[in-house]
Amino acid sequence: xxxxxxxxxxxxxxxxxxxxxxxxxxxxxxxxxxxxxxxxxxxxxxxxxxxxxxxxxxxxxxxxxxxxxxxxxxxxxxxxxxxxxxxxxxxxxxxxxxxxxxxxxxxxxxxxxxxxxxxxxxxxxxxxxxxxxxxxxxxxxxxxxxxxxxxxxxxxxxxxxxxxxxxxxxxxxxxxxxxxxxxxxxxxxxxxxxxxxxxxxxxxxxxxxxxxxxxxxxxxxxxxxxxxxxxxxxxxxxxxxxxxxxxxxxxxxxxxxxxxxxxxxxxxxxxxxxxxxxxxxxxxxxxxxxxxxxxxxxxxxxxxxxxxxxxxxxxxxxxxxxxxxxx
Length: 327
Hints:
alpha/beta, NERD, P-loop_NTPase, 3 domains, NERD domain-containing protein, six-stranded mixed beta sheet
């Protein structure tokens, strides 16, 4: 997995959750097939300070502070950060808060050194100068900002951007003082005591893509491309009602429908799955040692480390969904 996301604890505010979700989607969208590992930790507490996100990659460790603003921004090392919006010819200026600090720069600076101190104590990083940790103030809405208003010394590690330019900024930030191996990146999970239960769900579209990419079955590929607009009949009705009648009777409308051709049942032998002796004996007794193709595929995916959801229907009209974790 090229992108792994951990959430140390749930965010307190709705806008933080929304922004973190957008942040993660952009990471998955751009780096899910990268050969390098990107580890994101959300809402991390270090030395009593809250950091909205930390992104670790091979050549950078970057902390993020989320701000739910947009407009024309003015940076100050000291004092407040005014940001101005214009609507219907009327301007409105507010100050961007920095938590308990005077402004976001001071917030990020203090958070940087809290993270640095923690890693100095608990991490064993061979080729990394922790003084090269970078920081970003990330705005949820578009901003106009003069990057040259930040002095060169501060600009060497401190950045300001918005969600629409997030990936561009992440790609720009690299340091010759940081060279992390994949094992060192993965070890951040241990350093901050974040077990598997803290792992954030991979967006569905990237789970599906990774499975489809490994599917070479011509029948599966053909099925993905079928679009059949033949009129639906009532042959599969329940108690005289078609599926469409049942849906519309529940207050919903059918706006589009694709019919897929029925596929013949296909059973495969379990001999090549290397199941435990107990499972092997049970399936030999219960189903003669053969299972349906989709069940066989599900077991293969579980063995490869995927989480699997199976949905099936019975002849009596019941539907069941089964979720199996690879862990």
